[in-house]
Amino acid sequence: MAAGRWQVGFVPVARTTFDIPLAVEVAATARAHLAGANLALIGPETLVTTLEEALAAARMFAGQPLDALVIFQATFADSSMLMTLAERIDAPLLLWAVPEARTGGRLRLNSLCGINLGAHALKRAGRPYWHVYAAPEDAAGLELVQTLAAAGRARRLLAQARIGRVGSPPDGFETCQVDLSSLERRLGVRVSPVALEQVFERVRAADSEQLDALEAWAGERLAGLQELDRGAVRGTLATYVVLRELARQEGFSGLAVRCWPQFFTDLGCAACGALGMLNDDRLPAACEADVNGAITQLILQWVSDSPAFDADLVAIDRETDAAVLWHCGKAPLSMSDPAYQPRGVVHSNRRLPLLLQFPLKPGRVTVARLSQANGDLQLVIGGGEMLPAPPSFSGTSGLLRFDRPTMDVLDTVLREGLEHHLALTYGEHRAALTALAGLLGLPVLNL
After folding, report:
1. Are 203 and 235 in contact (CB under 8 A)?
2. pTM above 0.90?
3. 20 to 30 Å CA-CA from 397: which of 98, 316, 325, 379?
4. Which CATH superfamily is domain 162-446 in?
């Protein structure tokens, strides 16, 4: 099996009364095309033409963490082999039919009619599926396989995910409240409470030598670190160490941390810089104990294979038709605009370090939010272009031009009563998020 980012089952089905040499050729072309595109393919090397061979293929996938399953209709076949596979394999299912030349002679493959039968059978069975009608080397087929695999992987990992909620949401932050039973029932995500004081005790006892090394690391990357209260800086660095170790020990996929006021009043430092460092480690860390925010970051991280973080929508720039996304200072350093030197700073209100300050780098971004604004889970999805811009405010900020007029986006956010945190990652991933919502049975609200 070739190495790849996603693990995909590939089963070419056919009926022997059609043009088998041509079917072998198109299936081999499709397999080679997918295997050369960062996909790890699993499945039979030869055409599957009987129910017994379909059962053998299903057994081949047993115990394999499949991100997607491609049923490649090399020729016409009835739905029996497809349904044999679909009933035994829990992965996003793609039906792929190939065009053939109109020669005036024999219909050599009749592939399209094959997936028509399959689609009907799946629809009657209530099984979600996707389809593509494209040549075996067509980019459209590859793109859809990658989209489904990204969504399938996110769904699979969500079912294994565990979020550590450190402390509880601040009073008046209904946006950070969460229905724990719904999360576990609908997504498979479990949430475990962690007492803030438990974390604080470990932070106070953090290893000094480890903090020395982290302080040197931070000093190489952040301007102005030497100007800040050293004890508070080391408190933030110790928080990073403790939360990272806590996640490792408890098997947490992400963290939702009550960051204020206790970190300032009881520990004498800011949590922000630590959360930003965790986000860069791909251990999503949401502030204000926002569990759904942490889950959204996880989803974005999985579909993009890059860090994510959550931010507030704080201003609209009508001149550029863009919105300011901001947070105190917890974006991952990997998102910083290379035209600016990141700085270590104090919290703008609490006047304690350590926060990360820089503008977000320009580029395509995807934003999302697992929302319960209407009482049930839904997935909010949007996209846009992060513009090159100086810092809008202290902390981490970016100027985002949504794909829709920004005032329309704001109207949607306020009319729908959405949560104040939006998570973002770089790249275009809306199709994968939409597919994931379909797999999870979640309604989609497009920004």
Report:
1. yes
2. yes
3. 379
4. L-fucose Isomerase; Chain A, domain 2 (3.40.275.10)
